[in-house]
Design a protein that fits this description.
This protein is an alpha+beta fold. It folds into two domains: about 1-140, 60s Ribosomal Protein L30, Chain: A; about 155-310, PurM-like C-terminal domain (Phosphoribosyl-aminoimidazole Synthetase, Chain A, domain 2). About 30% of the residues lie in helices and about 25% in strands. It contains nine helices and 13 strands. It has helices at about 1-15, 30-35, 60-70, 90-110, 165-170, 190-200, 215-225, 240-250, 270-280; strands spanning about 40-45, 50-55, 55, 75-85, 110-120, 130-140, 155-160, 205-210, 230, 260-265, 290-295, 300-305, 310. The strands form three sheets. The chain has a seven-stranded mixed sheet, with helices on both faces. A four-stranded mixed sheet has the order 1-6-4-5, covered by helices on one side. Helix 4 links the parallel strand 4 and strand 5 (about 110-120). Helix 1 packs parallel to helix 4 (about 90-110). The longest helix is centred in the N-terminal third of the chain and has 18 residues, at about 90-110. The two termini are about 25 Å apart.
Length: about 325
C-alpha cells in the first residue's frame, strides 16, 4: 500500500502539504483568513458507470463536482481530499489514468489534493472504483448566496446547453444503440462564478444542476424562497442531439444531469450585465436568460411552452438515469 500511494497518488498529486504524508493536512489559519471571512466545506461520492465516457471520466468528475459545489457558494476552492475504494483486480493502468485525470482537472480548477485514503475490497464488493472527494474553500466578505434569496423581479440564468452529461452517459453505456457526438460538460466553474460576482456581487442564488437537473434546482429555489419561477421553453439552450435523444426515449431534458452547468438567480436590473460576463468566459459561452421570479401564494415552477401554454415543472421523484455521477 505504501508503494501504491507513493507511486500512483503522490506522484500525481505532489504538493508541499501532501508530501509530508501525515494523517491530516494542516494549513495556517492566517493564510486562509486573507481570502475571506467564512469557510465553505463540502463532500461528495462518485460511482459513475462507465468509468470513462465522452468528455470525461470518474476522476475528472470527482474533482469538478466538488469544486463546483464550493464555487456556487461564492467560495474560492482551495483544497480537496481524495478517498478511493478499489475493487480487487483493478488494472493499475486504469487507476493511473483516473488519477492523472484528477490531477489535470485539479490544475484547471486551481486546487490542490492534499490528503486522502485508499481501500481495496474483494472482487465483486465494488464496481472497479468509487471515489469520495471533500473540499474546502474561502467565501469572500460581503458574498451572501443562498437558495432562499430569490425575490420577485429577479432573472434566471444558465451558463449553457442542458443535459449534455446525462446524454453522454446514456450513449456511453451502449444500451440503446444511440449514436451522437454529445460529450459531457464536465468542467470547473469557479472561474465563471468569479466573473459573475465581479459583474454583480448581489447574486441571489447559485447551484450546479447535477442530479435532478435544472428542474430540481429551480424547485429548490422556489421552495426555499417562497416564490414562483417561470421559465420559457423557447429560451432553454439545448443541443439538437440532446433534444432528439430525449424525444426518442421519453426523457425530459430539464431533469437530465449536468456536470458543468449552473443555475443563477440575479436581480433583474443586473441580468444583462451578468449574462455578458458569463458569455465572455469559456464556461459560459452559451449562457442564456431562461426565466424570471414571480410573486405567488405557493412556491411553484412553471414552464411556458413554445405553443403558448403552461405546465407545472415539479421536483423529480427518483432518477431518470442511475449512476450518472
Amino acid at each position: 500500500m505504501r508503494e501504491l500511494i507513493e507511486d500512483v497518488f503522490l506522484g500525481a498529486f505532489d504538493n508541499p502539504v501532501l508530501r509530508l504524508l501525515e494523517d491530516q493536512a494542516v494549513f495556517p489559519l492566517a493564510e486562509l483568513a486573507q481570502g475571506g471571512d467564512r469557510l465553505a466545506f463540502t463532500t461528495d461520492t462518485f460511482v459513475v458507470d462507465p468509468l470513462f465516457f465522452p468528455g470525461g471520466d470518474i476522476g475528472a468528475l470527482a474533482v469538478a463536482g466538488t469544486v463546483n459545489d464550493l464555487a456556487v457558494s461564492g467560495a474560492r476552492p482551495l483544497y480537496l481530499s481524495c478517498a478511493m475504494v478499489l475493487e480487487e483486480g483493478l488494472p493499475l493502468e486504469i487507476l493511473r489514468r483516473v488519477v492523472a485525470s484528477m490531477r489535470h482537472m485539479a490544475d484547471r480548477a486551481g486546487v490542490s489534493i492534499v490528503t486522502g485514503d485508499t481501500k481495496v475490497v474483494e472482487r465483486g464488493s465494488a464496481d472497479k472504483i468509487f471515489i469520495n472527494t471533500a473540499g474546502i474553500g474561502i467565501v469572500p466578505a460581503g458574498i451572501a448566496i443562498s437558495a432562499s434569496g430569490a425575490r420577485p423581479g429577479d432573472a434566471v440564468l444558465v451558463n449553457g446547453t442542458l443535459g449534455d452529461h446525462g446524454t453522454a452517459i446514456l450513449v456511453a453505456r451502449n444500451q440503446l444503440a444511440l449514436q451522437t457526438d454529445v460529450t459531457s460538460d464536465c468542467q470547473p466553474l469557479a472561474g465563471l462564478v468569479g466573473a459573475m460576482l465581479a459583474a454583480c456581487p448581489e447574486i441571489r442564488c447559485l447551484r450546479d444542476a447535477t442530479r435532478g437537473g435544472v428542474a430540481t434546482v429551480l424547485n429548490e429555489f422556489a421552495a426555499s424562497s417562497g416564490v414562483a419561477i417561470r421559465i420559457r421553453e423557447e429560451g432553454l439552450p439545448l443541443r439538437e442531439e440532446v433534444r432528439g435523444a430525449c424525444e426518442i426515449l421519453g426523457l425530459d431534458p430539464l431533469y437530465l444531469a449536468n456536470e458543468g452547468k449552473l443555475v443563477a438567480i440575479v436581480p433583474g436590473w443586473a441580468a444583462h450585465e451578468v449574462l455578458a460576463a458569463m458569455r465572455a468566459h469559456p464556461a459560459g459561452r452559451d449562457a442564456a436568460l431562461i426565466g424570471e421570479v414571480l410573486e405567488a401564494p405557493e412556491p411553484v415552477v412553471v414552464l411556458e411552452t413554445s405553443f403558448g401554454g403552461q405546465r407545472i415543472v415539479d421536483t423529480l421523484v427518483g432518477e431518470q438515469l442511475p449512476r450518472i455521477c
